[in-house]
Specification:
alpha+beta; DUF4885 domain-containing protein; globular; 275 residues; DUF4885
Length: 275
């Protein structure tokens, strides 16, 4: 899945979530806030789309491969800056000798390793797992795009499992563990909010009839396969000096790693000038 495909998927997901939030009863303000934070925080691919729109003259000088690399590097710089700023605003500073490893699991949770001060490690995890920032989800997407640059295709089953779980969490405050299939292959479990979604999928007057149908079909597919049989999305990055470092890849996108493999003089000059 290339950047353009991810842009479409991101826009689709955003369109899907907004009406679901609008239909929620007033007492679910917490869930509304969560939906708002998801739609307010741009995904990695959507940021890339914005970069493309804002740089038409630069785009005209690049081929498709060059511009994908450019977008990834710009996104990397943005993530570096936002993570560093978030840590600083929380009163957390890292010395030059502190080299962390950030692991992200399929629930978007970031786990920090490589720091001896347990209290500091716990504080860093709490800051990075702030749901408003969505660093975990963004790092997962970023890692997959980096993987594609290194010849690793997207694990579509793992992504679909993550996607339907996020769908359940956003529109109904549920997870895959809360729902199952009955003998007829229909959904059971859930709550009133999920029932509203199921009803909307059957309503030809609903603007999101087909979108909900598509998501519910994906949900049933995941449940039929068995969520436990499908791998979770995951990612790991090094982090030092305010910079994310790609691990176990030949094409890394930190400034230091980029110099090791990028042999395009024009692109290298453009990227390093945007550092």
């Amino acid at each position: 899945m290339n950047i353009r495909d991810r842009v479409k998927l991101s826009l689709y997901s955003e369109q899907l979530m907004k009406p679901a939030a609008a239909e929620m009863p007033a007492k679910t303000t917490g869930s509304k806030r969560m939906v708002g934070s998801q739609t307010d925080t741009l995904s990695i691919s959507k940021q890339a789309e914005a970069a493309q729109k804002n740089a038409p003259s630069l785009r005209s000088q690049m081929n498709g491969v060059q511009f994908e690399i450019y977008n990834l590097y710009v996104d990397r710089q943005r993530l570096n800056s936002q993570i560093d700023e978030t840590l600083r605003e929380s009163g957390i500073s890292l010395s030059e000798s502190e080299h962390l490893t950030l692991h992200v699991d399929g629930n978007n949770r970031i786990i920090v390793e490589g720091i001896e001060d347990e209290q500091k490690r716990t504080r860093i995890e709490a800051v990075l797992n702030n749901s408003d920032k969505r660093f975990g989800a963004r790092l997962l997407s970023h890692a997959e795009l980096i993987g594609e640059q290194n010849g690793t295709p997207l694990d579509k089953e793992a992504y679909e499992k993550w996607h339907v779980n996020e769908f359940l969490k956003t529109i109904a405050g549920l997870s895959l563990a809360d729902v199952s299939l009955d003998e007829k292959g229909e959904l059971e479990g859930g709550n009133e909010r999920l029932i509203r979604v199921i009803d909307s999928a059957k309503d030809p007057k609903s603007d999101l009839e087909k979108s909900f149908q598509n998501m519910l079909k994906k949900l049933k597919n995941v449940l039929a396969k068995g969520p436990d049989t499908i791998a979770d999305r995951s990612a790991s990055f090094g982090y030092a000096g305010g910079t994310l470092i790609d691990l176990n890849v030949s094409k890394g996108f930190s400034a230091g790693q980029l110099n090791e493999w990028l042999d395009d003089p024009f692109l290298k000059e453009v990227l390093l000038n945007n550092s």
